[in-house]
Amino acid sequence: MVTVLDKVNHIEPTQIKSIVEYVNALDNVGVLGAGRLGRATTIVKRMFGDPDCFTYLSMSGPMVPGGLRGIVRHLVEKKAIQAIVTSGANIVHDLVEAYGGNHFRVPSSKDDVELRAAGMGRIGDIFVYEKDFARFEKGIYDFLDGLPEEKLTTLAPSEFLTELGNTLEDRSSIVKQAASHNVPIFSPGLMDSMLGFHLYTYSTTKKLALDFVKDLRILGAIVTEQKKTGAIMLGGGLSKHFTMGSTILRGGLDMAIQITLDRPEGGSLSGAPLVEGVSWQKVQTDANFETVIGDATVLFPLIILAALQS
């Protein structure tokens, strides 16, 4: 029997006038990184277009300080995603801006000793002023002081973030808009962040304890009610594992993409191909999934813009 093969279609630059046309051209190339990005975009379009699909956005790494704050907030406002799972750091950096701080590009002439002396902290080629972290700290302490005493010991982290989001004035904040649009934010590694550190220091003077087990109960109740689940995963780590692990309750994800720079040889979850999740019941046997190798701060906006504009 002769197998009919699809040919590689070359990109014709004179025929591309929009992001959608560009991503469609990559899909028509069909191989290597171009093909992966094209297929990932098709999967995301299916997630967004399927009213039965409960879609997670999972974020590890410096996605908020890396320029993705606006696009994540937009997805929340459009209800294109139904839950966020993220590192504590991305929450912190959203709150730094919500309380009036900013992120800046590191001047190439500056080294880390100079940055430290100037009261700056560096993330790659991004820096933040210590004074903006001090403003964030004050905002968190003021929020905690305003919480009823019974909530200080009964809230799950996702409930805590909803309460916090409802007090913010910055409409550009992911945390605020998530609270306003009933999109829960789960952060299993919340304590491994400056927000976690401030929760600890506050607890040394007043009774405070978040219920992390309760968060899994909340998410479990949501997941088991869904007909389908999908996930857009930026980076790996704890956020990716928590996202995929929670779907074991219904046999795994139906649709998924991950954008990662991690490699699979070390056996880490961050670099693991999504097909590995099939054996763990984190991905359905008939699921649609794709891994895109690259920088999420470049590829995620491209995929989302193409998906939303198609």
Walk me through the structure.
The protein contains 13 helices and nine strands. The chain has 310 residues and is α/β, with parallel strands linked by helices. The protein has a domain at 53-225: Deoxyhypusine synthase (Deoxyhypusine Synthase, 3-Layer(aba) Sandwich). Strand 4 and strand 5 form a beta hairpin. Helix 1 packs across helix 2 (32-49), helix 4 (88-98) crosses helix 6 (130-146) and helix 6 crosses helix 9. The model has no long low-confidence stretch (mean pLDDT 90).
Properties at a glance:
310 residues; Deoxyhypusine Synthase; three-stranded antiparallel β-sheet
Task: Describe the secondary structure blueprint for this structure.
Elements: H1 19-29, H2 32-49, E1 53-59, H3 64-77, E2 83-86, H4 88-98, E3 104-105, H5 112-117, E4 120-123, E5 126-129, H6 130-146, H7 157-165, H8 174-180, E6 185-186, H9 194-203, H10 212-223, E7 228-234, H11 237-246, E8 253-260, H12 276-279, E9 283-293, H13 296-309
Parallel strand pairs: 1-2, 1-7, 2-6, 7-8, 8-9
Antiparallel strand pairs: 3-5, 4-5
Helix pairs in contact: 1-2, 1-13, 2-13, 3-8, 4-6, 6-9, 7-8
What's the short story on this structure?
46% of the residues lie in helices and 16% in strands. It has helices spanning 19-29, 32-49, 64-77, 88-98, 112-117, 130-146, 157-165, 174-180, 194-203, 212-223, 237-246, 276-279, 296-309, and strands spanning 53-59, 83-86, 104-105, 120-123, 126-129, 185-186, 228-234, 253-260, 283-293. Helix 1 (19-29) packs across helix 2 (32-49), helix 2 (32-49) crosses helix 13 (296-309) and helix 3 (64-77) packs parallel to helix 8 (174-180).
